[in-house]
Write a structure and sequence with these properties.
single chain; 531 residues; alpha/beta; five-stranded parallel beta sheet; 17 helices
């Protein structure tokens, strides 16, 4: 064989090496040719109803040159004992890391986490309890009776037999299991004679000290994400997942990537957190944060009270978010001082943490907003809807039924000195909120309480605390939409049928905007009364 022919024949082992290298190069080419999306400093227009993000695509130049070929390693390669390179993590990733007992996690990792608090209520409790008994046995015990919170709140003040049966079902289970935190109601004719009854779960969880920085909270309700205001991971799950947690205290979850929202600027005195979250949802859409963490930071966030932070995190699920989270600070710690003795450990995003995208908002440029029917992302300026006639106004729910929400509404009524032109329904979230309406003086009112101001304005008397008509329910639920009417509401969803009648039209708004609309009978910018 000639030398020229011999030069074209390669050793089989070298061919194998070259093959491996070529495959690796091919993989590198396909991987590095992907498009990188950057949304840092995205333009969040406060005036447009359409997203106006600045999106930049970058395509990297590729090299097809094979730099070197290495011979296969002959000896066994042992794992490194000198440590590993750790990627900086976000708040949510750090919380997952603690709960899964893993030092390093990345978005997309599936991990078993240890749950700190599991919450269920009368609407979903019977379902997850039934699954628990089926899978673990009729006589099985829950994993920790002090880490389960069961709160009746959805369909309480109704004569509906099935709703009442649900309440009896969760009561029997709680007694059988010795659940420490079961907030029962036995006399539905007068909630005040039930000292254990609280009201809306998401507000009661905070008031009763179940929300703590750095922890994992799982609930059978999509608005469990409200608790993220305390710097913890909180999300809603289905009955099957909750049943598994009942029995084991664990849950398999995927680590979500994080969207970061930087809100800076002085908050105008005619805006509330509801306007901020409607702005964000209108910008990224109801699917813009699907299975993503939404982290809120910035000088505006730092200035918010805990209840306002709860409003912000409450509605991240309306953007598809897995969870919302706000770094714990002095405001958080002050709120928790008299509410829990359980030790907790806050976590914070690293300086170089990886965010899928970052959005920057100048809050000082925003105006009062509403979400028009039939979607929370159908954003519009309140002043653009001034010709929309409303039939009623609803102030309540986990989103807009907290003490500060009613104080805000009272401020508008006090400033106007007028009476409402449409029926205005008031549904305190919890028994504590109800008491505040009758005891706390409204600033600048000369000592008047919310209840006095509401009465002078011609509103309905504040009713028993519960979820009320936020999600419709039986026909006899207080303030339910039983006719195809237009309602301006401080609640969180405006899908067809959400508050009852499938042809009802719901305009989501802040307590300021809701109160202003009650005074005029039209969707109204609250600046008309707050200037």
């Amino acid at each position: 064989m000639s030398s020229s022919h011999r030069s074209e024949i390669l050793d089989p082992s070298l061919l194998m090496i070259l093959g491996i290298s070529l495959m690796a190069t091919s993989y590198a080419l396909s991987s590095s040719s992907s498009l990188f999306l950057t949304q840092n400093g995205a333009d969040m227009s406060p005036f447009s109803s359409q997203p106006s993000r600045s999106i930049q695509f970058v395509q990297k130049k590729l090299s097809r040159k094979i730099v070197s070929v290495m011979a296969p390693q002959q000896s066994e390669r042992k794992p490194s004992t000198t440590g590993s390179v750790k990627t900086r993590m976000t708040m949510t990733e750090k919380i997952f890391s603690r709960a899964s007992e893993k030092s390093q996690l990345n978005p997309g990792d599936n991990v078993w986490i240890n749950v700190d608090v599991l919450m269920t209520h009368d609407a979903c409790g019977p379902g997850c309890i039934s699954v628990f008994k089926k899978e673990f046995g009729d006589n099985a015990k829950v994993w920790d009776r002090e880490k389960i919170v069961i709160i009746p709140d959805h369909y309480i003040f109704t004569s509906d037999e099935r709703a009442n049966r649900n309440l009896n079902f969760i009561r029997d289970f709680s007694i059988q299991q010795g659940i420490k935190y079961f907030y029962d109601i036995t006399d539905r004719s007068d909630f005040k004679v039930n000292p254990d009854y609280k009201g809306v779960c998401h507000v009661a969880l905070a008031q009763e000290g179940h929300c703590r920085p750095g922890e994992i909270m799982i609930g059978t309700d999509s608005h469990t994400c409200t608790a993220g205001a305390f710097g913890q991971f909180a999300t809603g799950v289905g009955n099957t997942d909750a049943a598994f947690v009942f029995g084991t205290g664990k849950l398999l979850l995927k680590v979500p990537p994080t969207l970061r929202f930087v809100l800076d600027g002085e908050m105008p005195d005619y805006l509330l957190a509801k306007d901020l979250i409607l702005q964000i949802i209108g910008e990224i859409s109801v699917s813009g944060a699907t299975y993503k963490a939404m982290e809120f930071v910035g000088s505006t966030i730092e200035s918010l009270t805990m209840e306002e932070r709860m409003t912000l995190c409450n509605m991240v699920v309306e953007a598809g978010g897995k969870n919302g989270v706000i770094p714990a600070d002095a405001t958080t710690f002050k709120y928790l001082e008299d509410k829990t003795s359980v030790p907790y450990e806050p976590v914070y995003s690293d300086d170089q943490a990886r965010f899928l995208a970052e959005y920057k908002i100048d809050v000082s440029k925003l105006e009062p907003l509403v979400a028009k029917p039939h979607s929370p992302d159908n954003r519009a300026l309140a002043r653009e809807c001034k010709d929309v006639k409303t039939d009623r106004v609803y102030i309540g729910s986990c989103t807009g039924g907290k003490t500060e929400d009613f104080l805000a509404a009272a401020r508008v009524f006090l400033a106007s000195g007028e009476k409402v032109k449409v029926p205005t329904f008031l549904v305190p979230a919890t028994q504590k909120v109800w008491m505040d309406l009758y005891t706390l003086p409204v600033p600048g009112s000369g000592g008047k309480t919310c209840s006095q101001i509401f009465e002078e304005a011609g509103c309905d008397t504040p009713t028993s605390p519960s979820c009320g008509a936020c999600l419709g329910g039986p026909r006899d639920v207080y303030a339910r939409l039983n006719e195809p009417q237009v309602c301006v509401s401080t609640t969180n969803r405006n899908f067809p049928g959400r508050m009852g009648h499938k042809e009802g039209q719901i305009y989501l708004a802040s307590p300021y905007t809701a109160a202003a609309s009650a005074l005029t009978g039209f969707v109204t910018d609250p600046r008309e009364f707050l200037r």
